[in-house]
Amino acid sequence: MKIIKIPVSAGWLKKTTGVEKGPDKIIKHLEDFWFSETGVLPVYSFDEVKAPTQKTVFEKIKSQNEFIALGGDHSLTYSVFKAFASNNKNPGIIVFDAHPDLMPTTDPVNHENYLRALIEHDVVKPKNIILVGIRNSDPDEIKFLKENKIKNFPMNLIAEEGKEAICDTIMSAAKNFDALYLSIDLDAVDAAFAPGVTYPEVGGLTSRELLYFLHRLKKLKNLKAADVVELNPDKDSNNITALLAAKLVVELC
């Protein structure tokens, strides 16, 4: 699997400072896992966007087919998915995140509005977006989400209906995409399991619950690419978030 490091920290008011160290930290901990839980020996090749901007990231990803991008903050998904969409018809995206990232669009795009920018810039159709794990939203984001009829599976719904039923629904919807992209903001996971993120939030998925979703989603034949973002080693505790991020990469390979 091609792993591409994108050490970008482009967050609003420098809120994401530290996440640029995330890719190297994740790669360091890959060696802690010999096999995936399904018995697969992961094989990697590595690449990097050394001076990450929207343009340089787009150009790097445009030449890739199947890959995992390591951030870095969530703004990188704008350029990465834009390049992915340029190579694939009818692309769809599943986003695990505590926040919808649908704040009003800015120039440049940041980690709080990249998803809204993808919609408003006609990169992805709202019906081809699936949000999972949301539990903290701005009123403007909620309004935009509802107006655009974006599929949303917030934490309270997952708690009520169970991860198995929710995953069934997600997989059924995702099968309609010709090419599937998976974006994992580590703050989708409860702060008890993933403290080393830009915006830690309580009440989220456990690390095991996220792995459950990943193991099932990986079976989808249209899944072609993914990213793991928002690891901030400066905020981590005993490298627990970095270890989780590395394990997610291993399980995706």
How does this structure look, described?
With 253 residues, the chain is α/β, with parallel strands linked by helices. It has one domain (2-252): Arginase, Chain A (3-Layer(aba) Sandwich). It has helices at residues 22-30, 54-62, 76-87, 114-120, 139-147, 155-161, 163-174, 207-217, 240-252, and strands at residues 2-6, 45-48, 67-71, 91-96, 129-132, 151-153, 179-185, 223-229. The chain starts with a strand and ends with a helix. 50% of the residues are buried.
Provide a short characterization of the protein structure.
Helices cover 35% and strands 16% of the residues. The chain has nine helices and eight strands. The protein starts with a strand and ends with a helix.
